[in-house]
Design a protein that fits this description.
By secondary structure, the chain is an alpha/beta fold. It has 17 helices and 14 strands. The chain is 43% helix and 13% strand. The strands form three sheets. The protein has a six-stranded parallel beta sheet with strand order 3-2-1-4-5-6, sandwiched between helices. The chain has a six-stranded parallel beta sheet with strand order 11-10-9-12-13-14.
């Protein structure tokens, strides 16, 4: 079987590389020539643990190829996965121009049956638009060629995407024909040997499943952040509350850790898109609108704590920041809470010194040199008036507190991920402020 993946972002590149890993002939297509040239050398445009050696291995074995010309890849291809970006428009709806461009290119160049699969996160009804776009181009050519359109949403966690693909909890596929179902099941057979199912459904349900899943996870995050804020006011300990509710099998322990808001490429975009889709169909997603409001406010929590601690006297203060990416094991800065925090600190007249194990280049590309990018964890702390823990990278968990104390001007820590112990911080001579626990 030969497949083509269009788009070499997180979804497309991981998908294509993992299919190649099990012996499938894969061509990944992207319009970015520099990106493709680097990929041919085994250089990935993203940071994802384990991805670079897997790319290099499959390129060397001839199973993984790259191209900038989709039209030239269509002949002989059995399945085309569309994994191009669907960025939010100004109104929050998903921008489908790239998805439909791919569909039109397929329609202009196909000569035999093709299964067209939307892998990107797209609103309900997109598959019909893709079908119409392909059929429209075939009609212009006066060609009658059979094809199918399917929906196969991804459920990959940045930082653990390869493991998620190779050992999936489930594979969700929306199909319109038995032929498409047979092809998809055959394609995914190597990944279902662990007993997890391929869940076949209609196309609109598959499109909705992706949005519903991300929105549910986002809801858990915002709910827990709301509870954490109330815990601080009432004198409760959110860590105890989290353990208490997490032991309930109906709730579970995942996504109930308080923090400074969700970010990344999925949750913010998908929540906005689902809200907009509902609005366009005369329905208000009241819970999700509240989820979004809580998340927006939560990104300012650490700044508000700092501002209250210094009684509004922030001008000229040096703030150390550990972590920039929206979560560990990725360099993704999209919708990262650190961006909101940095802007607020700079607007208040602070100097910001930051360190992140992998995301500093991406952060610098995004915001320029408005902050100082430090060489390591301790370099950020020199003469700092406060330390803010923003991303819970493993290397931040056990610092040498004697060194930290010696380097900082004022020994106060604002922990946005609750990774340190309140009593331990006090015993080490720090003023410690976290989330969902009243400061002592």
């Amino acid at each position: 079987m030969k497949i083509t993946i269009v788009g070499t972002g997180y979804v497309g590149l991981v998908t294509g590389t993992c299919f190649a890993e099990v012996g499938i002939d894969v061509t990944c297509v992207d319009i970015d020539k520099v990106k493709i040239e680097n990929l041919e050398k085994g250089i990935s445009p993203i940071f994802e643990p384990g991805l670079d050696p897997m790319i290099e291995r499959n390129v060397n074995k001839g199973r993984l190829k790259f191209s900038t010309d989709l039209a030239s890849c269509i002949d002989g291809t059995d399945v085309i996965f569309s994994a191009v970006g669907t960025p939010p428009d100004e109104d929050g709806s998903a921008d489908l121009q790239y998805v439909l461009d791919v569909a039109r290119t397929v329609g202009k160049n196909m000569n035999d049956y093709i299964l067209m699969v939307t892998k990107s996160t797209v609103p309900v009804g997109t598959a019909k638009k893709v079908r119409d776009a392909i059929q429209g181009e075939l009609d212009k050519r006066s060609m009658k060629i059979e094809f199918d359109v399917a929906s196969n949403p991804e459920f990959l966690k940045e930082g653990d995407a390869i493991n998620d693909f190779l050992k999936p909890d489930r594979i969700v596929v929306g199909v319109e024909s038995e032929k498409a179902e047979t092809i998809i099941k055959s394609l995914y057979k190597p990944f279902t040997l662990n007993g997890h199912p391929v869940i076949i459904m209609d196309v609109p349900s598959a499109e909705m499943t992706k949005y519903a899943a991300n929105s549910m996870l986002a809801t858990k995050i915002s709910f827990m952040n709301d509870i954490a804020n109330l815990c601080e006011i009432m004198g409760a300990d959110v860590n105890m509350v989290r353990k208490g509710i997490g032991s309930d099998s109906r709730i579970g322990t995942k996504f109930i850790y308080p923090g400074i808001g969700y970010g990344g490429s999925c949750f913010p975009k998908d929540v906005k898109a689902l809200i907009k889709t509902a609005d366009q169909n005369g329905y208000s997603m009241r819970v999700l609108k509240a989820v979004e409001d809580v998340n927006d406010d939560q990104k300012s929590v650490l700044f508000n704590k700092l501002n209250a601690y210094y009684k509004g006297d922030l001008k000229g203060r040096t703030i150390a920041m550990w972590g920039l990416s929206f979560k560990p094991q990725t360099d993704d800065m999209r919708e990262a809470p650190s961006l909101v925090l940095i802007k607020k600190l700079l607007d208040a007249g602070c100097k910001v010194k930051a360190y992140d194990p992998v995301a500093m280049h991406e952060a610098q590309r995004k915001i320029g040199d408005v902050i100082e990018f430090s060489k390591d964890t301790y370099d950020t702390l020199v003469d700092a008036d406060a330390l803010m823990l923003v991303t819970e990278w493993t290397e931040f968990r056990f610092p040498n507190w004697k060194v930290v104390k010696k380097l900082m001007k004022h020994n106060v820590i604002f922990d946005g991920r609750n990774i340190f112990d309140n009593k331990e911080m006090l015993d080490n001579g720090f003023e410690y402020h976290c989330l969902g626990i009243k400061s002592i």
